[in-house]
């Protein structure tokens, strides 16, 4: 994979090494020199086991979230929004529209929005959450009217982004009321719009956006979790993309497996249905690696896992995801929410 | 001729914002933290540098003020000198407000050649603001058109770029008609339109002006700049502008700020870095465009009010002006301490909490407001920023090291100001220290370490001490010293915190005082022991280096006084590796310091013993008898060494210097017994030599044995007079002189 990869945090490297340590909970005694949230500290540890789907998964209408499928979403983590009110979405849309107009034509904020032919819409997506405790997801869409016939033509969405939180109890539990926890942000469209919308949110709700990269370790989790999902017969192959480090020329290895074979392998590895442990993930990947080694004499464990695609979704380590099955949308979002939370805590 | 008030050229002190800096030192809490001193010292140094620059700038300005006739740039070295002074200062620090009057007058009066005028105009970068009066007078120069049209044009571009830097705009607004009349000039027209666009208010839209613009449009065709102005007119008074304007125009005006933008940003960044109170005075246009690859990586956020939220409500109630109806005091206007006091009840935190960091007034405010959400907002922002910008954790961030350093400094200063550590900063250190190379941002990181809050030491041990110890043992002498120093400051911050909380004990905010206190005692004890361990090892590694020993003893100067000075029921003696290294050191400063420390230990231990006997407070913390025993062993060794010349016989410390006489005789040293007393001790021998020379100027044999009896007392007085205060305190407290009476007689 050539091209701009975002700066990978070296802290990722720590992850594997320290994951056996218990997450040291911070004592919430008053005898501290500093103030701050008194939540448990994880330092990028990932848990030993994960659930596949949120426990109380409502049967959401797949139609309503269908537009989220088959698009590339860039992932961001967002710190809790301060003084956000779900009752004011219309006002927010208007202010955001004004802000975008102002940003697009620096200093010339006249006749806001109208002349630019850009409209901002903010709406809620109540379908996307794990439980009642999660706040409803928030959708922002920027659409433009075609310039030919401004009145009648249909609006075209040129950029969309959404905030969501699926089973974010870790973070919501300790948070004061004036904060809204929507730790995962996904954007599709020109980055300049992401920047403008993001800046507006940062300024208005005092939150902080950060690109959410997915570590190779978490990619292996995704590979295992998604392999186990029940799929229709004719889904596409599972594909793992590896890149070989320290070479003068970039060298990528693509490893495609028939989904039924992968599922069969996974079924022999996994013990408790609905829950997955780190050990199972490791065993699953080791099996795939040794199979590959038998044929090509290449140790994949010495390379870096860059991308995982299955029938459920595909994820790139740069923090780009594509959802393919609305049935598993919340499941994937739950994992991503967890990753986002661990990045902001 | 434009009218000129003579007073405006009177020499006001340059750089208005300096007064702000002076204020700050008064606001800072006093006396507790040393680094503040060094900050001040550094500041005064840079002030000196600024002074000399200021002088040359004033010279240059007065030259330009007086310059009469056309001076050729090539021929006049004076002009060259002053011109380059103005240029270099403008690009480095920006020009003070008073400079604009003089320089704009010179430029627009056409006294000098255009090349000079252009260079001056290009360097008109403000340090803070541009006085309105100078803009008004330059417009009047513009009217008499003494300068070339190129200069006129450049001036207009400058004015458009700097529009937001003009301190007030009422008079400039009053010149609307004059600017409007310049529309006739075809060359200036686009820029005049842009300027009018910035200036236009509803009352400026008049039928005759609309007609004039429409005339121009019919003459010149559909020009985007005319359309921009017309659309603005139409927005204000739709009834006056009946023509249809295109809905979508890509850009109305050409960017005219290219010449100055980089300079403005550079000046702004530098001024922010230099001044401890960087006043976020600049408005949106000067906002540096995303400096980096990331759109949200802004380390210094200007404070802006959180009115965005209120606007929503206000606009529903009345569409007039949300500011005038709003009760709250906008943070943008908060610039002085009295203002803070007057408006503290109607102040609101800025929309982005991160902006308080560089704003001492808001830090004051933050100190007053006990609101958990304030800290939470700051916690999230700072945590994310530190992780994202960290130069050693994130690949490719190296190039931004200076910037990150500046950010860490700001965080550190805010911590000193608030006298408490930020938990996001602590977490950042725990996360990133294991990856730290000990080089990047070294002094900043080590200073931040000193503000780590006291928590369970087990966590600290693995996250902080272990990575620090690894770096400590593998790094240079100076790095070792700075680690010891920052651990000393860490200890002091903990102790200070403890003191403050003892004082506010009555608040009973901390009901579980006992557990907190024992936690503190354990934490402090483990920190002191940790420093003892690494110090012992480091002294061996560095062969008892004087410099290192100095820092270690400095640490123990705090440790030995914990009971009396900080009311903490804990005393820990230095390990033998430190004690003997200091006792036998070659350097009188360290020996003297050791004497002082032992004197303080004695005072503390005696006080502890007394309070134990009086059964006073803090009974649950009894000093272990081991501490007393250790102290006694040390004192025997010290007295034996320095005074009674019996160190090799009487020292009973297991790691001490007790040696058999046989072995000592084998060394062949004569009079080995007294070789470490105050006369023969290698750290003091130079004093003994000097004393001999003064007492027996003719004797060249250096007969040290002459120093005894009455002379011994003289020698002591001589040593005390040389500033060995610690030695004096030690000898007077710990050594029972045989006959004090006879001694004082002898002195008489």
UniProtKB/TrEMBL annotation, chain A:
Q: Which UniProt keywords apply?
A: Centromere, Chromosome, Nucleus
Specify whether Nucleus is a keyword of the entry: yes
GO CC, sorted alphabetically, is: chromosome, centromeric region; nucleus
Region (Disordered) location: 1-39
- Listed InterPro entries: CENP-L (IPR025204)
Could you confirm whether the keyword Metal-binding appears in this record?
no
Q: Which residues form the signal peptide?
A: none
The entry's localization annotation reads: Chromosome, Centromere; Nucleus
PANTHER family per the record? CENTROMERE PROTEIN L (PTHR31740)
Membership in a protein family: Belongs to the CENP-L/IML3 family.
**What is this protein identified as?**
Centromere protein L
Q: Which organism is it from?
A: Penelope pileata
TrEMBL record, chain B:
Broad class of the protein's primary localization: nucleus
Q: Transferase as a keyword?
A: no
Q: Where is the composition biased (Basic and acidic residues)?
A: 44-54
Extent of Basic residues compositional bias: 1-14
Q: Does the keyword Nucleus apply?
A: yes
Q: Where in the cell is it found?
A: Chromosome, Centromere; Nucleus
One Gene Ontology term of the biological-process aspect is: mitotic sister chromatid segregation
| Record-linked InterPro entries | CENP-I
Q: Which GO terms describe its cellular component?
A: inner kinetochore; nucleus
Region of interest (Disordered), residue spans: 1-54
Record's signal peptide: none
Q: Name one Pfam family in it.
A: CENP-I
Give the UniProt keywords, A-Z.
Centromere, Chromosome, Nucleus
Q: Which family does it belong to?
A: Belongs to the CENP-I/CTF3 family.
PANTHER family under this entry?
CENTROMERE PROTEIN I (PTHR48208:SF2)
Q: What is this protein called?
A: CENPI protein
> Which species does the entry assign this protein to?
Penelope pileata
């Amino acid at each position: 994979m050539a091209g701009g990869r975002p700066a990978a945090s070296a802290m990722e490297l720590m992850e594997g090494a320290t994951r056996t340590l218990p997450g040291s909970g911070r004592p919430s005694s008053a005898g501290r020199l500093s103030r701050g949230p008194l939540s448990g500290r994880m330092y990028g540890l990932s848990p030993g086991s994960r659930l596949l789907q949120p426990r109380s998964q409502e049967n959401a209408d797949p139609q309503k979230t269908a537009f989220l499928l088959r698009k590339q979403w860039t992932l961001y983590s967002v710190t809790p929004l301060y003084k956000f009110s779900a009752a004011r979405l219309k006002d927010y849309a208007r202010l955001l529209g004004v802000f975008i107009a102002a940003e697009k034509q620096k200093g010339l904020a006249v006749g806001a929005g109208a002349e630019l032919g850009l409209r901002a819409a903010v709406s809620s997506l109540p379908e996307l959450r794990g439980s009642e405790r999660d706040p409803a997801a928030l959708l922002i869409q920027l659409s433009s009217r075609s310039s030919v016939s401004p009145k009648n033509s249909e609006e075209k969405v040129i950029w969309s982004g959404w905030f969501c939180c699926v089973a974010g109890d870790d973070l919501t539990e300790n948070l004061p009321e004036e904060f809204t926890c929507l730790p995962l942000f996904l954007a599709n469209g020109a980055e300049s719009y992401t920047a403008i919308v993001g800046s507006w949110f940062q300024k208005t709700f005092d939150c902080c956006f950060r690109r959410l990269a997915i570590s190779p370790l978490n990619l292996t989790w995704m590979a295992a979790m998604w392999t186990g999902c029940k799929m229709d017969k004719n889904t596409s192959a599972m594909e793992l993309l590896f890149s070989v480090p320290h070479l003068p020329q970039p060298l990528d290895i693509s490893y495609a497996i028939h989904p039924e074979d992968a599922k069969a392998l996974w079924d022999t590895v996994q013990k408790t249905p609905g829950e997955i442990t780190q050990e199972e993930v490791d065993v699953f990947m080791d099996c795939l690696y040794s199979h590959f080694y038998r044929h090509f004499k290449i140790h994949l464990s010495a390379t870096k896992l860059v991308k995982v695609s299955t029938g459920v979704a595909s994820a790139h380590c740069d923090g780009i995801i594509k959802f393919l099955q609305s049935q598993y949308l919340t499941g994937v979002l739950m994992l991503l929410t967890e990753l986002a939370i661990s990045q902001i805590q | 001729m434009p009218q000129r008030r003579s007073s405006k050229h009177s020499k006001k002190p340059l750089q208005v914002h300096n007064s702000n800096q002076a204020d700050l030192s008064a606001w800072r809490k006093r006396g507790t933290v040393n680094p503040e001193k060094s900050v001040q010292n550094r500041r005064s140094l840079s002030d000196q540098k600024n002074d000399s620059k200021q002088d040359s700038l004033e010279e240059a300005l007065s030259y330009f003020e007086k310059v009469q006739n056309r001076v050729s740039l090539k021929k006049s070295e004076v002009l060259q000198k002053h011109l380059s002074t103005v240029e270099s200062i403008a690009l480095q620090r920006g020009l003070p407000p008073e400079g604009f009057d003089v320089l704009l007058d010179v430029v627009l009066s056409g006294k000098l050649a255009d090349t000079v005028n252009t260079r001056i105009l290009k360097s008109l970068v403000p340090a803070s603001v541009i006085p309105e009066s100078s803009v008004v007078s330059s417009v009047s120069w513009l009217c008499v058109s003494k300068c070339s049209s190129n200069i006129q044009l450049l001036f207009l571009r400058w004015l458009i770029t700097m529009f937001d830097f003009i301190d007030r705009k009422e008079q400039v607004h009053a010149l609307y008609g004059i600017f409007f009349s310049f529309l006739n000039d075809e060359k200036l027209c686009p820029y005049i339109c842009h300027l009018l666009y910035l200036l236009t208010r509803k009352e400026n839209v008049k039928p005759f002006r609309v007609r004039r613009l429409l005339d121009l449009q019919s003459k010149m065709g559909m020009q985007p700049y005319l359309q921009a102005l017309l659309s603005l007119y139409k927005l204000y008074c739709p009834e006056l502008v009946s023509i249809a304007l295109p809905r979508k125009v890509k850009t109305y005006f050409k960017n005219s700020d290219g010449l100055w933008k980089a300079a403005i940003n550079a000046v702004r960044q530098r001024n922010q870095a230099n001044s401890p109170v960087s006043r976020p005075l600049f408005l949106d246009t000067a906002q540096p465009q995303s400096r980096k690859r990331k759109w949200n990586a802004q380390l210094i956020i200007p404070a802006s009010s959180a009115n965005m939220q209120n606007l929503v409500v206000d606009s529903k109630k009345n569409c007039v002006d949300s500011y005038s109806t709003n009760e709250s005091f906008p943070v943008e206007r908060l610039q002085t301490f009295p203002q803070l006091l007057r408006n503290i009840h109607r102040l609101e935190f800025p929309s982005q909490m991160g902006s308080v960091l560089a704003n001492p007034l808001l830090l004051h405010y933050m100190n007053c407001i006990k609101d958990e959400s304030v800290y939470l907002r700051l916690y999230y922002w700072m945590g994310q920023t530190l992780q994202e910008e960290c130069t050693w954790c994130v690949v490719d961030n190296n190039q931004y090291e200076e910037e990150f350093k500046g950010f860490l400094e700001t965080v550190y200063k805010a911590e000193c100001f608030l006298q408490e550590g930020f938990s996001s900063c602590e977490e950042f250190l725990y996360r990133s220290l294991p990856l730290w190379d000990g080089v990047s941002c070294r002094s900043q990181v080590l200073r931040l370490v000193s503000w780590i809050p006291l928590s369970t030491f087990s966590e600290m041990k693995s996250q902080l001490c272990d990575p620090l110890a690894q770096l400590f043992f593998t790094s240079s002498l100076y790095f070792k010293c700075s680690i010891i120093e920052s651990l000393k400051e860490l200890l002091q911050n903990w102790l200070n915190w403890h003191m403050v909380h003892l004082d506010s004990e009555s608040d009973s905010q901390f009901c579980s005082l006992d557990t907190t206190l024992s936690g503190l005692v354990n934490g402090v004890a483990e920190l002191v022991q940790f420093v003892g361990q690494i110090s012992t090892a480091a002294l061996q590694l560095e062969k008892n280096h004087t410099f290192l020993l100095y820092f270690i003893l400095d640490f123990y100067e705090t440790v030995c006084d914990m009971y009396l000075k900080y009311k903490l029921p804990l005393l820990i003696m230095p390990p033998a590796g430190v004690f003997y290294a200091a006792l036998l050191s070659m350097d009188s400063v360290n020996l003297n310091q050791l004497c002082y420390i032992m004197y303080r230990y004695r005072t503390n231990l005696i006080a502890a013993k007394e309070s134990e006997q009086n059964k006073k407070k803090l009974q649950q913390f009894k000093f272990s008898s081991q501490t007393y025993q250790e102290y006694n062993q040390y004192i025997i060794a010290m007295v034996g060494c320095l005074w009674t010349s019996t160190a090799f016989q009487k020292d009973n410390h297991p790691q001490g210097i007790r040696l058999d006489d046989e072995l000592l005789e084998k060394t062949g040293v004569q009079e080995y017994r007294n070789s470490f007393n105050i006369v023969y001790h290698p750290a003091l021998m130079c004093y003994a030599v000097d004393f001999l020379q003064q007492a027996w100027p003719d004797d060249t044999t250096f007969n040290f044995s002459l120093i005894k009896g009455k002379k011994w007392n003289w020698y002591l007085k001589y040593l005390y007079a040389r500033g060995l205060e610690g030695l004096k305190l030690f000898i007077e407290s710990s050594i029972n002189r045989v006959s004090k009476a006879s001694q004082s007689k002898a002195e008489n």
